[in-house]
Amino acid sequence: MTPTEIAVAVLIAGGVFFTFVAGVGLLRLPDVYTRTHSASKSDTLGAGLALAAVAVTFGADLPTVKAALLVLFMFVTNPTAAHAIARAAADQGIEPWTVDDDESGGGNE
Q: Where are the domains of the chain?
């Protein structure tokens, strides 16, 4: 394998990993705020790594410029959308998930 192929494989593997982590976070986390955080951070990084693999694959060509612009667009819009969702949830009065003292198992009895 050439160094370019190795770099592409590593970037794709990283993108798949972080996208998978975002999906697991959406399924497993308890409330809208933590789910929004998971989707905003992990999914943005996963898609950014996948688009970086596209840029490395095509080299210095027009598709690389398009991939770079997509990464820039995603780095601006994904956190903005996550903030808007969290803000809308707060405006609707949705309370963040908290652990009750009785359920935490660490209280003095």
A: 3-89
